[in-house]
């Protein structure tokens, strides 16, 4: 223990000792860093005593996880220390332990006698906690605050940090919580790894901008010019009919335009080197895209790009994040409210069009009133505004809360004649929080979800919770008296504006396909211009922080924005119910409850009276609503 660690880098240790397992790798056998030469610089930076933090902003399929495994294996074998690996969730932590770490520990000879047999009863080799001579390995989920704050750590590995929740329970940012575990070690190492998400809201992008920003420069086999590989230099041919031929994809040198086939590209990458673009101040940053990967052919990337471009912003964002390793700039332009006037459809207020299969509501608490919008949701998350309700009086008036309670038992008539109730109402807690908690406890949390808006984007989980919070009711403080959901309002605002920009599909006959694309927002003819102005009252802009970094921020174009807030809360309620994760079979079963055989073109309901069968009151209750 007193002997200093050997003069051996992580990449050299991996080349000597690491063996890849058949169930965890497509190329089992002896590890070769030269197979993906760019990994050498990343691993050796972790070995470098002058480097405290390593940041890797990368696409998928570049070997990020294997690099981290080599780091863990090296420290277990050569430089024992307390190690913590943080995954986005506890389930991810268990999967990483079982499917990635355990096979490495089993098949790498130098680790076999240092990790206890998992079948032993001494507790030294549990799924999420493993002991070895001189240290231990703890694997936790970023959503578990107790795991992040339990013990001092010298080596911290944070994987997919952009998928972490905004807060670990009520403890705050999970990355900062984990970093606090390392402060007692003078020789600590912090490794942050992730594919990026949205520009201005990405943890890994912010960390990379604070690093020395290293990029991998590759020499051209033809002219020798060094260059960073970019997607703009990937080209392919088109057929005579104008169709794309992704099988002809190749990389073109930025200097001499020489085409590189996949084999030529891989050979050139093996001769590349990392070059920093900013001064080094203790943090080494690395950026990679999928073009560098020796496991990906350009034909596959070209096909993925063409498919993403055809799928719209949502699929294109996935390509930019996971293939190019770059952040996605949300299009936050507010739609023109006058254009929305021309897209209004005809159905009566308080009635549910045939495509609507369940109802949610969003409630915005103001000083002198509570505004509520009721939305119907259908397959593909199409939505219809069913009702707009203003309850006068404000949170200080008991009668106001009673009217809101009455709204929970009110019914709205579906096109089939069935009476529907609100499946979940999400209410903002930003104003008069105590009064909101008191009301929610009175009516019960089964149908009501108190929500708190958080800044920033979170595509992985726009809604987190519920967390138990203290509530003051009738002057008495109740510990864990309320359940609170946290909502990434930026995500749902950007989604709403993206959906509002969708156009109905032009079709010559119903057989040509669905008229409305997934996510289409149907607006009724009875809403006024003021409501439309409130729905489009904010704009997403890029601002500079005090430290000079870019940040996305929603700013008001108009003073009143209640319609947009209510829409966000109603959308959060649909997420809480699980609508984003329902299978096609669930949607079909839900539709069958209303005798809706074809919801493709049900944009509105007729103004005629329902059939005679509708005189028998039926209330729709779905097992999916909890």
UniProtKB/TrEMBL annotation:
Residues 283-580 form the Terminase large subunit GpA endonuclease domain. PANTHER family: PROPHAGE TAIL FIBER ASSEMBLY PROTEIN HOMOLOG TFAE-RELATED (PTHR34413:SF2), PROPHAGE TAIL FIBER ASSEMBLY PROTEIN HOMOLOG TFAE-RELATED-RELATED (PTHR34413). Signal peptide: none annotated. It comes from the Bacteria. This is Phage terminase large subunit family protein. Residues 25-274 form the Phage terminase large subunit GpA ATPase domain. It holds the Pfam family GpA_ATPase. InterPro entries: GpA_ATPase, GpA_endonuclease, P-loop_NTPase, Phage_lambda_GpA-like, TFA_Chaperone.
